[in-house]
Design goal:
The protein is an all-alpha fold and 191 residues long. Helices cover 83% and strands 0% of the residues. It has 7 helices and no strands. It is elongated and about 95 Å long.
Length: 191
């Protein structure tokens, strides 16, 4: 009888432990689903804001207001100010568009403005997504490109080296690894 009582007690403890484990797995699954929904919502917000941004850039060209020959620099300045003003309370979208604006400024040869935009975007991406997130790494490599163009080789290397290490551990980051390799070659040529 004593053995049966111990067996019953052990069975009951095991049943309670299994129930607790099951509840913990359910809570983890719920948290993961909430995280996926939040990420999907943020992706939708970024996509919508990106479209609004592009429409704002091209919408600033208004022939009826005498702006038929607007320079892209002027349109981008207006759009960037609008993003800063209207998306200050949405850091993820602001950072995503900050990257786009930084790359656009780089393409226009405005390296100082490009660097600042990309640095701001990188800070937010690091805070929100961490150093090993692909979004963060993309901005980091964009900033490396700007720094190399500005002749800031040491600063570029300081960003490129940790990014390269992280990218080596991410199998889905082949294109970014290739970009980092190209930046590394540029860095060596610049030395």
């Amino acid at each position: 009888a004593l053995v049966r009582a111990r067996d019953a007690e052990a069975s009951e403890r095991l049943r309670r432990q299994e129930a607790q484990d099951s509840e913990a797995r359910a809570r983890l699954a719920e948290a993961a689903e909430r995280q996926r929904r939040q990420e999907a919502e943020e992706a939708g917000q970024r996509a919508e804001a990106s479209l609004d941004f592009l429409l704002g850039v091209f919408g600033s060209v208004r022939p009826d207001r005498g702006s038929r020959d607007v320079k892209l620099v002027d349109a981008l300045s207006v759009a960037a100010a609008t993003v800063d003003r209207e998306l200050a309370d949405n850091p993820s979208v602001h950072a995503a568009l900050g990257r786009a604006i930084g790359v656009a400024w780089f393409s226009l040869g405005k390296l100082d403005v490009a660097e600042q935009r990309l640095r701001d975007s990188l800070t937010v991406h690091r805070q929100r997504h961490g150093d090993d997130d692909l979004r963060t790494l993309r901005v980091q490599l964009d900033l490396v490109c700007v720094l190399l163009a500005r002749g800031q080789v040491d600063a570029a290397e300081a960003l490129l080296t940790p990014a390269t290490a992280v990218l080596a551990s991410l199998p889905e980051a082949r294109v970014l690894r290739d970009t980092a390799t190209l930046h590394r070659a540029e860095l060596h040529r610049a030395r």
